[in-house]
Design brief:
944 residues, alpha+beta, ten-stranded mixed beta sheet, globular
């Protein structure tokens, strides 16, 4: 079997022959197999493992796509990590260190000679060796240029179509490129306004890195150019050889018979565009101050200014003293807190806020889902309409879905234990990014070995000049989204250049006393139906206004004067500056210990929590361009766009300012253990939004790891077991059900049916509150009824507990700021349905504090009022019992209404992880796990 392809049935061959024999062009020949290069130093000694489902190979020819659509066949290495990843659900309880590779790849450097599948040399100074087990590219160059060229070439082999998609998403051109499906329209309308640029803007960012980041900046851009050259070399070769991704045929870019058409060359500015999508979705933080202001006004309207503000602050929980912390040794890192005397706040007049229109001049199917299928050749009909629901289904990308909290970001987890508490005396880490599930994955595995580069791990496709999370020769690192406040909202006072009275629609604003024109940025897209996307012909124009204070998001009046609210992000115009930090992390001459790792991580501008482990130390650092705000400015609310309230040292042309120094960022080295699941970093480090309270999903990790540390003798297997158990646990069942049961059982339950329901919940809680199959492959949960009851009850109990006291308006405003639920079955969460990630956003902490207040238990940082039963235990019990009775009677078909992948009432399927197809290859559903997409298990026994 030729490498990176599969054989198909004769029927498939016959079908595609109707398009011409050129369609059957084989995948590229691997080239002469050369001896494996001498391996570099690897101090992990077989104790580094990783996994990235579904598989490394993310490209598929047209033949392979048709085979998958017709018969379910898969290209080689496109799904061979899926079963191992899924297998941990059933296998974690008996896990030992020796069994880890049953569920993870061996992440050692190099490939043993008897495990070499192919060796490709796109240039004389680089080889790409792929292993038989997973097809991961091990790139080794004798020159720096050759190494990076090889990285780009391998990226083309594994993710060419995906990279093309993401450069067009970043540029706001997805519909023109891939089709006008309603989800595609929504996706580009969600992403482009967050980072709208002209080509000159993108070129300026390349120049900025070259001229402002010293020798490393120059080297980074040289590396990036070599990477782009490698992508284009593969792009050109695959086009001429007719083994390019088949999606180019299905979307009408290339004719399958004549090969006429083009895959547009990649440019350095494409990398900036891709970086804006990746960094903005996983490394952003803050914003949302307009919505926060609306909820504050609603609280003040109900309770009056003083009490309303107190109530709102108790829900906002900027610095909740009960929140789980990553740095838990008592060290404080004050940032973005509530000022004692706030100044410059710009709250809107009630009822005056309107969102800024984005889409204009719609024609044809724009704004609709109207279809007009083309007449497809017979051989392509199996693939017709594969993109009718969009190349990326709505809500699949973190932050891209509709509904409450959709713009929020936050993924990934980390568990690290100091050597003082491990069996070996060396630190152990189990960590990785939780970036959703796609086919192919947004990231790709690679090993890079060349002058100044030595690492294995993952990089987001299209920006893979360096490994972004992975391992070096004697150390490993990973990240979680931090989400601290690096985005602010300004209220710019509108004006007219002729001195006439401005309106909310005015396109000029006062900047330091001068009436200044806003800059209009536009993107016009049009589309026509193709085999892949049947959406009828249409077009529209997207338009945003850019100012010295960022992009206009809303219009309103403040004190009767018309204003525009703008969003200003520190990383805007600096989407790829972080490349220098990643370069350092890959350089074995730079990272030698925890301190040098922290310095490297501090050069990454996006908001991430970075974790590190070598044979001696576990460490942590929080990165991000944290602006130094003017004294008295409240970062949680919109602020007046005046000189006195700007970021210190702010330069609007370059979008630069003064930033908090290295020491002000939460950091630690040698703590007994670290956990992170997008929780609060440290004392004093104020949250950028709602939801970091007394109960957080990171408690699922913290409780387990703390217990392991107390027992001592931690191993890689035991730490992995702790992660895997947490990944199957319902946060509500473990953390909140005990309090709910205490209220319910405060008096005997006389209704026998309701008592039986409570007994089911008690039994589920006693068995671990898991959402886990009764046996592998049963597709039925052990405690299916209890899980159904909790899924039906939670939204009802939250509403019954809080809405009567808060009132419709305030309750609606607060739920708009923070959704009440994000169970695996809740499709409205920030990551959409079937996304794995769960229990990040919800009213867990509010319910916990409120019930403890009702029960008379101690509460630090209590809610300003007690809501359940207005504080009366008996009334609260009645409220909970009534909502529970209603939930218990709700049939599974209503709790789990079904979707395109699952029938109504199919509980396991509703929870299941589905790798969203970004190309023509689909994957089977797997068991739900609340777990990183890419994950490492590492323990270094030695050091340089």
């Amino acid at each position: 079997m030729p490498p990176r392809t599969v054989k198909f049935r004769a029927a498939t061959i016959a079908a595609v022959l109707t398009l011409g024999t050129t369609l059957l062009a084989a995948s590229p020949q691997s080239g002469a197999v050369a001896a494996e290069p001498v391996p570099v130093a690897d101090y992990c000694q077989g104790q580094c493992d990783d996994i990235l489902p579904p598989g490394e190979n993310g490209n598929a020819t047209l033949v392979e796509i048709l085979g998958n659509q017709a018969f379910g066949t898969h290209p080689a290495h496109s799904d061979d990590q899926l079963d191992r990843y899924n297998g941990l659900v059933a296998g974690y309880t008996g896990l030992t260190d020796r069994k880890l590779t049953d569920f993870f790849n061996d992440a050692s450097f190099g490939v043993p000679k008897d495990q070499v599948e192919s060796v490709t040399s796109p240039r004389d100074d680089v080889t790409i060796t792929r292993d038989r087990a997973s097809g991961v590219p091990h790139i080794k160059g004798t020159t720096r240029y050759g190494t990076e060229f090889g990285a780009g070439y391998a990226a083309g082999q594994d993710r060419l179509w995906l990279m093309d998609l993401f450069r067009h998403i970043g540029r706001g051109e997805l519909t023109s490129f891939a089709g006008g499906a309603l989800a595609n329209q929504g996706l580009e309308q969600q992403f482009w306004p967050q980072a709208p640029y002209t080509e000159a803007d993108l070129e300026a960012q390349v120049a900025y890195i070259r001229t402002h980041e010293g020798a490393r900046g120059e080297q980074a851009m040289a590396d990036a150019q070599a990477y782009v050259d490698g992508i284009n070399a593969y792009r050109d070769k695959s086009k001429k050889g007719r083994y390019f991704p088949g999606e180019y045929v299905l979307t009408g870019k290339i004719d399958a018979i004549t090969n006429i058409g083009e895959i547009q060359p990649f440019k350095l500015t494409d990398l900036i565009s891709i970086a804006s999508v990746v960094g903005g979705q996983f490394g952003g933080g803050g914003g949302g101050e307009v919505q926060a202001a609306l909820s504050l006004l609603s609280a003040q309207e109900k309770y009056g200014v003083a009490e309303g503000t107190e109530v709102w602050e108790s829900f906002r929980q900027r610095n909740d003293p009960e929140a789980v912390l990553t740095v838990h040794d008592g060290t404080s890192f004050p940032y973005a807190g509530k000022p004692a005397q706030a100044r410059g706040a710009a709250l809107p007049d009630p009822g005056s806020v309107t969102p800024e229109p984005l889409v204009h001049d719609r024609t044809g199917s724009a704004g609709t889902d109207r279809k007009a299928p083309v007449k497809a050749p017979a051989a392509l009909r199996k693939a017709q309409g594969i993109y009718d629901d969009g190349v990326i289904p709505e809500g699949s990308l973190p932050g891209s879905g509709p509904g409450p909290g959709a713009r929020k970001r936050g993924m990934s987890n980390a568990l690290l234990v100091s050597g003082k508490h491990t069996a070996s005396g060396n630190p152990i880490a189990v960590f990785g990014p939780q970036t959703g599930y796609f086919a192919p994955q947004l990231m790709m595995l690679q090993e890079l070995q060349g002058p100044g580069i030595s690492a294995r791990g993952v990089a987001f496709a299209g920006v893979g000049m360096y490994v972004q999370m992975g391992r070096g020769q004697d150390y490993a690192w990973s990240a979680t989204s931090a989400g601290q406040d690096i985005t602010d909202t300004y209220a710019i006072e509108l004006c007219e250049p002729d001195g006439s009275a401005p309106t909310k629609d005015s396109t000029h604003y006062l900047h330091h006393g001068t009436c200044t024109a806003m800059e209009k940025l536009e993107r016009t897209n049009s589309w026509a139906p193709t085999v892949a996307d049947s959406t009828a012909k249409g077009s529209y124009r997207m338009q945003v206004w850019r100012t010295a204070y960022g992009i206009v998001t809303h219009r309103a009046t403040v004190g009767g004067k018309p204003v525009a609210y703008t969003s200003l992000r520190t990383t805007y115009r600096h989407e790829a500056d972080s490349i220098v930090g990643f370069q350092m992390l890959n350089d074995p001459a730079y990272v030698k210990d925890a301190a040098s790792f922290q310095q490297a991580a501090s050069n990454i501008d996006y908001a991430f929590n970075w974790f590190y482990a070598d044979s001696r130390t576990a460490a942590y650092y929080n990165s991000g361009m944290n602006p130094v705000r003017a004294a008295g400015v409240d970062p949680a609310l919109p602020v007046k766009a005046e000189k006195a309230y700007e970021w210190q040292g702010y330069d609007p042309v370059a979008n630069t300012a003064a930033y908090t120094p290295f020491a002000a960022h939460p950091h630690s080295s040698g703590q007994d253990y670290y956990v992170s699941w997008n929780n609060k970093q440290a004392e004093g480090y104020a949250s950028a939004g709602f939801g970091l309270g007394a109960v957080h999903r990171a408690d699922l990790l913290d409780d387990r790891v703390a217990k392991l540390v107390e027992q001592g003798g931690v191993t890689r297997a035991s730490l992995t077991r702790a992660m895997a158990e947490a990944a199957l646990t319902d946060l509500r069942g473990e953390q909140l059900l005990p309090e709910l049961l205490q209220v319910l059982r405060s008096r005997p339950v006389t209704d026998p049916e309701l008592d039986a329901v409570i007994q089911q919940l008690e039994s589920w809680r006693a068995s671990g509150s898991q959402r886990r199959e009764s046996s592998p492959g049963s597709h039925t949960y052990t405690d299916a009824d209890a899980v159904r009851i909790m899924d039906a009850w939670w939204p009802k109990l939250v509403e019954a507990e809080f809405e009567p006291g808060l009132g419709d308006s305030l309750y609606g405003a607060l739920t708009a700021a923070l959704a009440t639920d994000e169970s695996p079955a809740a499709s409205h969460g920030p990551s959409g349905a079937h996304s794995g990630s769960a229990f990040q956003y919800g009213w867990w902490g509010f319910v916990d504090k409120d019930l403890r207040q009702v029960l008379g238990r101690p509460v630090k940082g209590p809610l300003a009022r007690t809501y359940c039963g207005n504080g009366d235990l008996s009334s609260c019990r009645d409220t909970l019992l009534a909502s529970l009775k209603q939930a218990a009677s709700e049939p599974a078909t209503d709790v789990y209404p079904g979707d395109d992948s699952c029938g109504a009432g199919e509980q396991w399927c509703t929870d299941s992880i589905i790798h969203r197809a970004l190309g023509g290859i689909s994957q089977k559903a797997i068991h739900w796990q609340n777990r990183p997409t890419y994950q490492q298990v590492v323990e270094f026994p030695g050091h340089r």
